Amino acid sequence: MPTLTPIRKAPLSRAWALLLDLVYPPRCGGCEKRGTLMCDGCLTRVEPPFESPDVERIDAVISAGLYQEPLRGAIHRLKYESDTPLARPLALLISGALARDDRWLADDGEPPVIVPVPLHRSRQRARGYNQSELLARELAKLTGWQVDQRLKRVRSTPPQVGLDSQARIDNVREAFEWAGEEAPPRVMLIDDVCTTGSTLSECAFALLSRGSEHVFAATVARATGHPLTADS
Questions:
Q1: Does the bond joining 70 to the residue before it have cis omega, within 30 degrees of 0?
Q2: Which residues fall within 8 angstroms of residue 189, CB to CB, at 6 or more apart?
Q3: 3-state percent helix, strand, coil for the chain, nearest multiple of 5
Q4: What single-letter DSSP state applies at residue 56?
Q5: How confident is the model at residue 224 (pLDDT cuts 50, 70, 90)?
Q6: CA distances (Å), origin 94, targets 24, 69, 145, 164, 199
Q7: Span of 32-41, 61-70, 167-176 with lowest mean pLDDT
Q8: Secondary structure of 57-80 as H, E, C letters
């Protein structure tokens, strides 16, 4: 089993965090139970995927659970309801999945560089944040890995929701570019959901075209049997 770097201390003081919890008590992302971001009951309901999807250009896709409740609700709240603190427990689920799956490990132990799947600047401006970036930064706190945000979405595209597999591929073709001279040799792409993998594949194309040798992907959830319900 691979070993991840221990969790780092958050810069926010414990006293201040407790005060915020008193004024704005957290709610479980799955069942909205007050007092926690993800309750034990919902965590035990997360069903790990029984197999890994084969995504073009991606060495391995590792997901924490299936895209069903309670993860579906938690991801929706993070993504569309500005419940950004949920990035913390969802990133913890990703780190747990990475600890159980060693396909991303290098022979020399060199960790991959975390690269969040980017939003186009117009969509990020409208939403106010990129949920994949939040997940990436929380994962970096847990692992000690570096985050690199030079992967850019250079073409604004309609949401993937409602598109069939071929339409998803066409929708994101050449939508990403690496804004640097050379991409990291080993990359861990981070996104909320893997559906058909078309977005991840196009991100990998941009990275491999600029020097990456191995591209992995880690997501909170993986959609199975419902290919038209999630974005990525």
A1: yes
A2: 58, 115, 116, 117, 200, 203, 204, 215, 216, 217, 218
A3: 35, 15, 50
A4: T
A5: confident
A6: 26, 16, 14, 27, 19
A7: 167-176
A8: CCCEEEEEEECCCCHHHHHHHHHH
